[in-house]
Design a protein that fits this description.
The chain has one domain: Clavaminate synthase-like (Double-stranded beta-helix), CATH 3.60.130. Helix 1 crosses helix 3 and helix 6 crosses helix 8. The protein contains nine helices and 15 strands. The chain has about 350 residues and is α+β, with helices and mostly antiparallel strands.
């Protein structure tokens, strides 16, 4: 690789400071939009289909659908994220909210599973202190050797998921704090390249991945056969992919070491993202749907204060959508296997 790496360009390169006093990234639902959602919900329920088989055909939104299609284009070619605000979640049951979130997300791609057990809609909820599952669909979760980060509380560093587009649908915020944070992969790429080009080269080379054994085929310990790049060039664009705990797990269990530059480059990624004004920070409200281009944007959250009662805790649905052939699958593949 050349020591001179060209910067990323275009609207996917932004800083959080760009959105001060700018709410263009929020789409507030009108009364007409909400009426369409209610009608679509009832139509989807009448089909009797499982949630993960519902498409935009079963969840038709004649007017709002056009707005969602424009947002899908914004995710692909623009800033890479959007918040749809104002679903009256308290007026619906949890199952109805699943249909609504899935139906809205069907306009951004095809839903894909998030675990070997399916988990087409994953619960983001701290259940780390629960000895039994608070709901039947979490039975397999509490039996895991180690909980995934979406089932534990606390702060999360900047990372991506393993999909094309991910969404978070907020049913309940935390008692306090838990601010969501987004950062442009292109901005991180350019800032690191300006000050530490050798670190940037290391990030292009990437790291080995090792998923939890519960996520791998036959529950076997598997380390990716090759390094997974943090940054990948796609014309003028730069795509990002990075899951720090999966990289660290491979390092802890592998037969390899990284040199000083490679090792510190991982920390530099986080340090640059923490630079004041770089990340876009906001609080998700009940009824918000955050939709993100996983290739263009890394996400994180601050620590938060939680309620002791499980039924009052911060609760979001997480959905994964695919719109590229390589991500489209009805079978879950862990990062260590997907990139082998």
């Amino acid at each position: 690789m050349s020591t001179k790496i060209e910067p990323a360009n275009g609207p996917t390169v932004w800083k959080g400071a760009d959105f001060v006093n700018d709410d263009a990234w929020i789409t507030s639902l009108s009364s007409g939009d909400l009426s369409e959602i209610d009608t679509a919900l009832n139509q989807a329920k009448r089909t009797g289909l499982p949630v993960h088989q519902i498409t935009s055909k079963e969840f038709p939104l004649p007017g709002l659908g056009k707005q969602l299609e424009a947002l899908a284009e914004e995710l692909e070619s623009g800033r890479g994220f959007a918040v749809i605000r104002g679903v009256p979640v308290n007026q619906y049951s949890e199952d109805e909210n699943k249909i609504i979130s899935w139906g809205l997300c069907s306009y951004f791609g095809t839903g894909i599973p998030q675990s070997r057990q399916g988990d087409w809609i994953n619960h983001v909820m701290d259940i780390s202190d629960q000895k039994s599952a608070p709901k039947p669909e979490l039975d397999h979760v509490v039996q895991r050797k180690q909980l995934r980060t979406n089932h534990r509380g606390g702060e999360l560093d900047f990372h991506t998921d393993t999909t094309d587009v991910f969404a978070l649908f907020c049913l309940r915020p935390a008692k306090s704090d838990g601010t969501s944070r987004l950062v442009s992969a292109g901005t991180l790429h350019n800032m690191i390249g300006e000050t530490k080009p050798d670190y940037l080269e290391a990030l292009y080379d990437g790291y080995y991945y090792m998923s939890q054994s519960d996520d791998n085929v036959n529950k076997a310990v598997t380390i990716s056969a090759k390094r997974v790049p943090v940054f990948t060039r796609k014309g003028d664009k730069v795509e990002g992919y990075y899951i720090s705990q999966v990289v660290q797990r491979a390092l802890d269990h592998g037969d390899f070491d990284y040199n000083a530059v490679e090792d510190d480059a991982r920390e530099e990624l986080q340090r640059v993202a923490e630079t004041p004004g770089v990340a876009h920070e906001f609080d998700l409200q009940a009824g918000d749907l955050l939709v993100v281009n996983n290739h263009a944007v890394l996400h994180a959250r601050y620590d938060y204060e939680e309620y002791p009662e499980i039924e009052r805790r911060r609760h979001l649905f997480r959905l994964w959508m695919a719109n590229t052939p390589e991500m489209m699958s009805k079978t879950f593949l862990a990062p260590s296997e997907k990139f082998s």
